[in-house]
Structure formats: structure tokens, C-alpha cells
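Provenance and format

Records in this collection were gathered into a single text stream. Each protein contributes a sequence line and a C-alpha cell line. The two records reproduced below are adjacent in the stream.
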Amino acid sequence: MVSFHLKNEPSPVERRIALPIGLLFWLLSAACLANGLANYVKTVVKYGRRRALVQSGWKTQVTFTIVACAIVAVCVLFLSTNAEKE
């Protein structure tokens, strides 16, 4: 079972999975932050021209679709790892 509790020593599976998944979610969070900053800057520039229309574009949709797919994939990974142990 993959538990990631700090009370016990991590199992070999937890040690193998922790770093890649941590890096994946760190990169995804940086991408979301960059996307939000780009939307903010674009909106502020358009407010200066009095033409602001605040909406998300296709890049935002793609970014959050990738994040959602990564979350679902990790949940499936954890469920399948748990199913193998039982």
C-alpha cells in the first residue's frame, strides 16, 4: 500500500514513486503559475488600452486539462498499487 505517512519508514515502492511524482506536480504547479501570470499581464495591458476582456484562452484550457489528467493518472496509479497489495 502506498501511504506516504511520516510515522513509518517508506517502503521501496514509495521511495521509487515519490520523487518522480513530486517533480511532476512541481512542474505542473509552475506551469499553472506562469499561465496565471501571463493572463494577468495580458489583462493589465488591455486595461491600459481600455479593451480588457477577462477570459481564459486555449493555453489555459490545455494547461488545466493536463493537470486534471495528471491527477487522475496518479489516482489510478495509487489505486492499482493498492489493489496489487491486497
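Adjacent record:
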Amino acid sequence: MVLPQDHENYAQSFFFNFYISPAALSNHARGFLGSLYPVWTRASSSSPLRPALNAVAQALLEAWSFSDPNSSQSLARPHYFQGIVAVRRHLESAEDIDDDVLLAMLMLDMYDGIRSFCGARPHEGPHVRGSAALIENRRKLPVNSKTSQETLLGVRSRIVGDALNKKESVSPNLLTWTTSTQGSPRTPEIELEAIILEVANLQVSALGLTADFALELLGKADALDQRLVAWFAIMPDEWVPSCIWGPKSIPRSIREAGLYQNHCTIHKSIWTADTLNVHSCSRIKTRQVILACLEHLNDPVGHMTRINALATIQDLADTICASVPYHLGDRVEIRRIDDKSVQYPCTGDNATPDAHYITAAAYGGMFLTKRLVELLKLGPLLRPGQQQWILGQMGRIRKIYKC
């Protein structure tokens, strides 16, 4: 793809059409993306959101044009630095922290995430920590609109997810960010996020674990694991994935590209698929804490608990691996973002929804990479051969996205 002369407007159109259009986000999108376009249209020409969003749009267009967003020649880089300068200028002016400033921080973080994905390196997330400080100031203002709620929840979601992956603690105050609003939403994602916040703090408590604290922490880990099990039991029925077998539902091209064991799962959307994979990763982490506690306890019952914890970890890892075909289809090389010749697993005669061709290409690789990286950290806890299979799929993702 050759970039057009008016590449800035073209990049914006590319981003809006393929990443945040109603068809791409559906009713199951998590985070802040649903509120982005309305705020963008109202933002002033001096708003930090304008250069920050341009950085993301240009980086994504470059990535899909087989250019490198990490290159010093990247057209996205100047927008990124302009966004940082604009945020600093806004803070120095002591103006209110409005939705556009928070969304600008999230866009700067998204840009960093794109560069990390394309460069196959960890996403450090410095702008996430900066967003938390801005939120503390924002809490002094009323949050009266759905857009403001979604923006705050988007920041909170990034902070909690970042802490979970990095084994960092999270302040419980994050759960109060929307209490200033009447009728704050209590979606399944938000309910899960509240539990994940506690899982993140549980991991921190397990660092430097001693025998004196092991029994108490074991009880906390088991209680959190049971809450995660309970969340899964009461989530919306349409979120329950379909597990499929056989050549009619799983074409040969998908099986050859990457099928772990002999089955895979189909989900309501790429967003619900990732939510369930985050849930699985969170349960894996509680089970890892349980295993760590058992190492410090001389309990004859502990042997069976240890066997059960390991079996659960392996089952949950299998569940994440089973979602790979839904994310990647039969892609093994670079394809257009809107390529509808890609084959995905399906149930019976049901065709793949048009929106899935876009969302799977746009978000599937980035979502899946985060979860597979977490599985690789399990090392010897995985089933024999599973680590090699995951590494193979990571290599496949790098070929698909040329990263």
C-alpha cells in the first residue's frame, strides 16, 4: 500500500473506519474507544487529543502499509511528541482535566502499545501511570455523562491490566472513580475488573512469601479464585463460547495454520473472547499463588491441592490456546485488513459475521499476543509440547503483522 499525499486525513479515516466504527466496536467493546469519536469531534484545535490520535492513526496505517512505526522516518512520531507537549502545556495552564485530555493520554499509551507490538518488545505503559494522577484531579469534578464514565473506566482498565501483568499493586481507590455518578454502569467487564484488581494486589503480597504468611495468603487466593469461578457462572449467556470439532466447522487451512489439540472455540465477538482470556489469565495467577503458598506449608492435604491447582492452570492454558483460530483464522502471512477470503471457524452453516473479519485483523493479533506471552511465563507448568506450540503461534503472528 502506497500512502496517499494527504496521508493525515487518510490515516484518520483508516482508524475511524477499521478501529472504532460501530461495526468494529459492537455492543461488546470494552474500555474507552466507544467514547473517542464524540470527544474528538468536539475537541478544539489546541486539544492534546488531536496530535495524540493522529499518532495512533498514522502508526496503524504505517503498520498495515508494511512500514515500520518504530522507524526514525515514521510520520507518526512528530504527532506523538506534539501530543506529549500539548498535554504538558495543558497541565501547566491549570485548566480542568476534561475528557479530551484523559483520552489523549490513552491515545499516547495506545501509540506506545502499537510500537511495542510492531517491535516485538514489552509495552512499558508510562502514560498509564500519568493517567492515574490526572484522574485524581478529575475526581473533583462531576462525571455526569456516559462519555465521561467510559473515559474514566478506560483509564482504570488500563491501570488494572498493567498492574496484573507487571505484578504491581493497585490502590483500591480506583474502584471509587465512578461513585460520583448516579447510575454508574455495572457491566460484566467492570465486575470482573474489580476482582482482577484484587488479584493484582494478591500477586504483590506473594512476593517474598514466608511460611508465617502462607496460610493466610492461601485463604485469600482460594477466595479470589472462587469469585472468578462465580463470575464465569453468571456472565451473559451469549458470552459462553461454542466449542467445536471436525473438518466441517474447522477447515483444513485453519487446522494447518494452528489448532491446539483437536478443537477450538467461537465467541460472540473479539472483545468477549479477550475478556474471557483475561479471566483465564487471572485464574491462572491465583492458582500460581496457591502453588507458592503450598511450598511453605507442611500439610498432607496439600498434595492433592497442588495437583488440582496444576491441572486447573493447564486447563485454563488450553482454553486460551483454543481461542487462537477465532483470533487469527487461517492467516499465516500478510493480508489486507479487510480481506474476507480469510477462513474462520464456524458453527454449522453459520457464516462468519462481516464485522469479525475487521475486528479479528485489527485487534486479534495484539490481544492474543498479550495472553500468549502470559502463558509462556508458566514455563514447566504447561503441558508437554505446549510451550513450543505457543512459540510457533507467536512466530506466526509476527509474520501476519510483519512485526
